[in-house]
Amino acid sequence: MERVYINKISDYVDKDVTIHGWLYNIRSSGKLMFPELRDGTGIIQGVVVKSVVPEKVWEDFSKLTQESSLKVTGTVTKHPKKEKVYELQIKDLETINISEPYPITPKEHGVEFLMDRRHLWIRSSKQAAILRIRNEIIQSVRDYMYNNGFILFDTPIFTPNACEGTSTLFATDYFDLGKAYLSQSGQLYAEAGAMALGKVYTLGPTFRAENSMTRRHITEFWMMEPEMAFYDIDDDMDLIEDFLEYVVQRVLKNCKDELEQIGRDVSALEKVKKPFPRVTYDQAIEILNKKDIPLIRMTEKGEEQIRPFPWGEDFGAPQEEAIVEEFDKPVMVHRWPAEAKSFYMKRDPENPKIALGVDVLAPEGFGEIIGGSQREDNFDELEKRIKEHNLPLEEFQWYLDLRRFGSVPHSGFGLGIERTVNWICNLDHIREAIPFARRPNRIRP
RNA sequence: UGGACAGUAGCUCAAUGGUGGAGCAUUCGGCUGUUAACCGAAGGGUUGCAGGUUCAAGUCCUGCCUGUCCAGCCA
User: Fold this and answer.
1) Which of residues 46-65 of A touch strand B (CB under 7 A)?
2) Are A218 and A441 in contact (CB under 8 A)?
């Protein structure tokens, strides 16, 4: 008997097939049973008729519990009432394993209960659909880069130094060489790659020891960071919008079923087409003042609201939301106050108080998904910044070499994979955007 | 790290300071088109932990633990 997967079942109408999978749920009605089978690619309802199947098959089905594993043979038919839905008229059953009582029932559960059983929760249809969309997002990222001349350039995870300060780094012992830190960005190495290969990208896990308990933060997340020689900040933004449009439109095209399964309103995603709004920091401040959004600062007395929003302050969640509300596409906020940004960003030649950085805010309140910039390519300027930020100059000598030996203007950005999944899937929380989320209060399972 | 809220059966939740219940799950029985199927029955409890108030605490008070949400930080 031909073994088939459920997502290809429509090719086998009126044919006999075998499905290898698990029992997702079962409903019975006297002399009829309706087992729902899942095989990782989808779910199909089986029909077991007592008067049709051998007595042993009927008895074996009666013994099945949720998540029991099995091989089922039957004839594929169209659903009598539903369009484009198929059923399996069951003829035979081979039980592989009778599951112990399964903890995740088809009823409601709390997040802690589910996260404690994340290894089982991912079998649920919504979680499985999210992980399939994640797969499509990552594959489309790789394909975009490959098809546009970017070279995959893997950067190290053990690093000796901080990219943006040591307080958010996880430290570990490294033989006789003292401390090693888990990478929080591959950018500095990617810059070396860009000088060697022109356009590169790195895609891998990154680690931030931030005690952030929000729906947008995890301590271990995947980031895709392209770095391009001879790109300025405007080239960088051109790339961002072309790239993001490709990823979103491809997920829309290839993950129709999954998006429907998780109840995603795709009309919002369909609008993600070039061009995206480009808003300078100064223009963003104007939006905040027009909407009377203050800076909120925590003091000893409590909350303090400062209006109008003072120039130079970074935006928080309420500010980002107010800006994004104005548009129905990802918004690129660029040319930030240099004070609030990292040491490696190039200053605007027209205004030294401005850094040539860009943040991309996802629509629908999902926050920042991309942070990018044109990098400082002048040796003296960069060395000065490293000193100003009290970073260990010796550790950055190799990085400064990139400015000593044939320095060129270059730019790049970092895309948070889970934040992108969070947005595209319209999730309540980023913990569902990765198979096993790591958060300050969770390292298991 | 700060603020708000919560913790009762395997799960999701009820219970005026006065005998701790329901639905689902589990086990048993019934039902020939079910869709989180339905109907009947059974088993299932150290009310997060430690103190305190009270004749009496799941309920009120204090401390701790755990979790959730929000803020900051960031992708």
Assistant:
1) 47, 49-51, 65
2) no
Question: Are the C-beta atoms of A181 and A395 separated by less than 8 Å?
Answer: no
Alpha-carbon gap, residue A183 to A191, rounded angstroms: 15
Does the CB of A45 fall within 7 Å of any strand B atom?
yes
Quick one: which H or E segment has residue A383? helix A379-388
A435 vs A106, A115, A119, A120, A210, CA distance in Å?
A: 20, 10, 8, 11, 20
Q: How far in angstroms lies nucleotide B39's C1' from the CA of residue A27? A: 14
Other beta carbons within 10 Å of A184: 22
pLDDT, mean of residues A293-318: 84
Cα separation, A150 vs A196, whole angstroms = 12
Binned at pLDDT 50, 70 and 90, residue A108 comes out as confident
pLDDT value, residue A302: 66
Q: Which strand B bases fall within 7 angstroms of a protein CB?
A: 1-2, 10-13, 23-27, 30-38, 66-75
The closest alpha carbon to A160, from A148, A172, A152, belongs to A172
Summarize pLDDT for A15-74 with one digit per residue, the tens.
999 999 999 999 888 889 999 999 999 999 999 999 999 989 998 998 888 899 999 999
